[in-house]
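Troubleshooting log. The previous structure file for this entry was overwritten by mistake, so regenerating from the original sequence record. Sequence copied from the archived sheet and checked twice against the printout by T.R.
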Amino acid sequence: MDVSGAKDAENQNIHMWKKHNGDNQKWDILYEKDMKAEPKKGEMNTDFGFKVETPFHIVSKLPSGRYIDIIGRNLVIKTPNGRNTQEWWFD
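Regenerated output below.
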């Protein structure tokens, strides 16, 4: 996933592009709630490194730290807004 033109702007499109290691291709996974005790609902899937059925956000490494969001049929980066279009799950 690549933020188009490496432009750190609200509603900037995301597309597939060949790897070039720019910050516009780097992302963090930010879990909605980081569990400190033994997980009750979701356990870590050690094969993929995701917690099962635990919501998370995909966060751009560009300076603003915007989240991947869905607008229509497009993926874009947007300021965190609490909407479920910015929430992702691993099944």
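Confidence is low (pLDDT under 50) at residues 35-40. Archived copy saved in two places this time.
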